[in-house]
Amino acid sequence: MRLLVAALDRELVAFPDELPGFDRLVTGPGKLQATHALTRALERGDYDEIVVVGTAGAIHEDVEATVHEVTAAIQHDVTDLDNVVGQHVSLPAMLSFGGSGHTIATGDHFVDDADAAAGIRDLGATLVDMEVYAYAWVAQQYNVPIRVLKAVSDRAQDGARWDWGEATDACSVLLLERVRRDYDL
Length: 185
Prior knowledge:
This protein has 185 residues and is of the alpha/beta class. The chain has helices at 31-44, 114-121, 132-141, 160-182; strands spanning 2-6, 22-26, 49-58, 67-75, 94-96, 102-106, 127-129, 146-154. The longest helix has 23 residues, at 160-182. The two termini are 14 Å apart. The mean pLDDT is 90.
């Protein structure tokens, strides 16, 4: 059995209520809710794989508005004791969990500012979201493989909140198509 994970119900609007071979978990937005909900789910159930789907902002101009495989995560909203951005005082700077793919920068605020996006891009990410680092960290604590599929909903620039709202339904359709194709559903 696999666990299909999304932060928000809206990211799953195109998905049927039941998907063969998958349980479903909606965690709520942000790192704390993601950590809490996924930890509880892994305490209650035994899963062969966690499959995360959802939206992300593209912070690199070459990233197309489609579904992308994410294989590493960093945090853009932490600093260590030396004030180094992206370095946490006790967690790894980067979590890798797959082959070749995109690096996503996770933080607890919605990025919709060109200057902020440029600073995050300088950390080495091409996408930005609010949960993936937390999901990956929890998955690693439980030794459960994780796969992350993110659909680009916006460019993390000024006005991105409005772009996200309009694009989420279309992103959900793209994510469902990818899951169906990749898992022969």
